[in-house]
Design a protein that fits this description.
heterotrimer, A mainly alpha, B mainly alpha, C alpha+beta, A: mainly alpha, MetI-like fold, 12 helices, C: alpha+beta, seven-stranded mixed beta sheet, 31% helix, globular, ABC transporter permease (chain B), membrane (chain B), transport (chain B), MetI-like (chain B)
Amino acid sequence: MPDKTVEKVATATGEPIPAVATDAGPAATGKPRSLWSDAWHDLRRNPLFLVSAVLIVFLLVMAIWPSLFTSASPRDVENLARDFRQPPQWGHVFGRDWLGFDGQGRSIYARIVYGARASITVGVGVTVCVTILGTIVGMIAGYFGGWIDTLLSRMTDIFLGIPFLLGALVVLNTFEKRSVWVVILALAFLGWTQIARVARGAVITIKQADYVVAAKALGASTTRILMRHILPNALAPIIVVATIALGGYIAAEATLSFLGIGLTEPTVSWGGDVSTGRELLRIAPHVLIIPSVMVSITVLSFLMFGDAVRNALDPKLR
Amino acid sequence: MGRYVARRLLQMIPVFIGSTFIIFFMMYALPGDPVRAMMGDQAYDPAVVASIKKDLGLDQPIIQQYVTYMGNLVQGDFGTQIASGRPIADIIADAFPVTIRLTIFAFTFVSLVGIGLGIVAGLKPDTLRDRGLLTLTLFLVSMPSFVLGFLLQYLLAFQWKVTDPTVTDSENWGQLMLPAIVLASLSLAYVARLTRTSIAENLRSDYMRTAVAKGLPRRRIIGVHLMRNSLIPVVTFLGIEVGNLMTGAIVTEGIFNVRGIGVEIYEALSRREGATVVGIASLMVLIYLAASLIVDLLYAVLDPRIRYA
Amino acid sequence: MRGAKSAKWVAIATAVALGATACGGSDGDSGNKGTKGGKPEGYVSIDVGEPQKPLIPADTNESNGSYVIQSLFTQLLDFDGDGNIVYTNAESVESADSKTWTVKLNKGWKFHNGEDVTAKSYVDAWNWYANIKNNQQNSFWFQDIKGYDDVHPEKGDPKAETMSGLKIVDDHTFTIELKYTMPYFNYKLGYTTWAPLPKVFYDDPKAFGQKPVGNGPYTFEKWDHKKLIQVKANPDYKGPNKAANKGVQFKAYTTLEAAYKDVVSGNLDMIRQVGPTDLPKYKQDLGDGAIEQPYAAIQTLTPAFYSKTFKDIDPKVLQGLSMAIDRDTITKTVLNNTRTPAKSFTPPGVKGNQDLDTDVFTYNPEKAKKLIEEGGGVPGNKFTVQYNTDGGHKEWVTAVCESIRKNTGVECVGDPKPDFATDLEARDNDQVKGMYRGGWVADYPVNANFMKELYHTTAEANNGRFSNKEIDALMNEADKAKSLDESVKAFQEVEKKLVEHMPAIPLWYYRINGGHGKNVDNVNVDFHGDLEVWAVTTK
């Protein structure tokens, strides 16, 4: 689950994490480069990054423009009696019957293609929401300190104390119709804490840096200091955590849909298809296994991507 | 140290109250009436529903219900289930040991195999076996537990017929093996990666170079110097994982039909047995809080630089 | 929702006879299998899960609890496979005017603790069940009795402790006076709710619910929560449904698959329903042990007549929608042959079931389209079907919707509710947006049960709020009939009228797909799909 990734970075005491961004000075080559261009230089030569980037682009195109991949509809039943649970026709690549049919006589290939949108929207959506919310809370807590920090930190603790899956079960149950947006908001509601902790840690370190002290002495406004000096420098560790978490959120959506409390009809979702297919594991395993594998491939792509980004942005790991 | 523990314990109180209230409140906000639900889809009498709700105090405002509930909870009374009339403590006592067993099983697996693999890879970073291990863990991480669960179920139970597809006796250690492995896989991958990174990093540190230069035996260098320093983050992670493993059990128990708290909580949710859900959730929150305290204390033991005042 | 047990009385005679020989034939090896799975010798086992509520007859309406209650308690009468009354604890239940009923009890019946079963055991129990203070779920079953409103007012405390309609004549005779005439009232008495209670019950109802004392064919032995309930044959039982085995174990399984596996391997004797995974091959696995039989239950699509879509809808449109559903293919594929396509509003096995002379239930896409057009179409050309996702309904709702969408172009989408609780709440509060999945299992095997309780304007379970003065009048008239036969006939006329108004679209009747292992025999199914455990014999 998404929670896990942070724990690697943050300690249980909520101690500040070494803000990785601060020791990103000029690279060893002698030519002064920013952290970002340095990272980019690194990424371009990382095969892990290249493979995952290609996969992700592929998935994105599928999510945005599914009809490019298949003319079949994920809902239409052409002939229930004929297609019912028919196994894949591996020879008919990209055909309607390529990956076989499900227990309703619908094309699994079409459902895979159309399911990409839900998965990716949720993954990206939650990551964006969590990053924004977590960064705001973390920055405020870290920068102002004092009672504001205590209050926000305790609030973070409360949300961390609720087991993620349990929380999601209860929150999502309150909604009858669960569109992509409901799932995004629910996961963001429970998941913002990790970024908040990372951001808070980073901000605490940065606020003692000379350039921040200088800006303050020059009479810069709080907003300006936060936006111009602190945020850009705290961004690297936040992005590291966020990209890795993205894969986790996609897995989380699939798991929740599998449990029957994720996306609801008529949204096509891989997790939901796995859950409808679970009774067919013995008689028609392809109905369940194909969407399962698809979830894994997608999560894997984003995880590899996140891994590559972290390696590039976190010099300590090099 | 004593004062630190006392302060931490005090800090836990608002966290406990806050998180249980959120869960309590959300249960309250759920659509669907537990008393009505128990009547089924044939004819029923609204007067009986109202009367039962009144007797159970379900017609009172939420804050009052929460206060009453917490008051009883503090005295060790978890309340009774609406439909069965059984004490919730009994239900928890039936289900908890099963989940704890599953969690211990998975936790042992995570610790032994995860750290083992991490050490194997970390000692020789960037070799073939290191790369192989990293790839393997990446695959494990990218498989949500239901995917891995079904895959193993399909292969082991249906294709090769070496195990039963589901658990028939939740108190049988042998049958819990497969669910425990599935539950463990994700954490295992993280632990292996974390251990590997930590060891690889410490291998390059100054104190290691010094130890080697001093001519200390390799066994001692690795066993004492390297391990002690490298395992600190791993221990932290493991501590937090206990709580995650317990909730992760909700999915795993569902796939393999283990009758633990996961199944119980899922059932209680769909029947709107609020008190059962909140009771189990409170216990989980407590375990999580206790685990994070223990981890912090362990931290001090492992890392001499940290002293809690 | 589950009710009275019935018995296939013809089958019993043969059952007992066969059982005797079967037992005799296998005496030789019964010793070594006696203790298998911790089961005492001569006991039979069946997969019945944890009852939802304590074991009190009037507080149980789900099938797990009903199974156990039925083994422990016997009420006045019962039914055979054709829906005819068979007296059990009663010698007779008769009425001259369908309003006042006289009950004569069989003498010599005892509760398991030795107490005599008398008229008082019944009257006191019914008064207790009906009292609002006792919060009994099935209390409304007593609403036809005079004085019910005094012990069970809609609001406030009861005005009386007893119903004035119940009068004890002597130890073994009592009379029931109803508020109105009801020719089939005696049929209602077959429901488990009408069971008597011993005096010990009133000392501590709560403890009784965990360890009940009944008057039925079995006595209670133990309840290991969520694992097992065990009952022992009652040697002194006087009723016709006397246990043919030495006892029963009701075993809880977490999945149908696990239970099925145990049946195949011999660890479990009977399974009530084979899971979808095993359906394709259970007939081969179980051979003669496979059970496939329809029972008195129906599934429908019920329009909410207050919703925007179906308010003032022309019944022709509903007839059209009905004809657009390919019931045959869907039952064969998506539903794994667990249902039989419906041909009327009442399932087979209930009195008065008839084949309606209409093609409204036959798949015919062209005519479907035509009818919908003639009727002015579905407003917005779109409707929803509400169902609960925790009951295995998603598959068939999707299939039905796709069938309608494909054949008529009317957009049909599922409206899933996360669980039964939410689904029911929406129905109760008139918040269904289009149709909902309706279902009904017979409480008593008379066609009135499938019409009066569902489509009368004042019926509690009429969640579609179908209301038609003509139909109401016909039903009220049918209730006033002098005899049951006349009443059944009158309801058959009502059913013919229903086709013109379409208060619901009948989809299919339920079928039980169960089975039993090689160690037992004589496994029969009653009218609402329950296996008759008492008749089962061990080999």
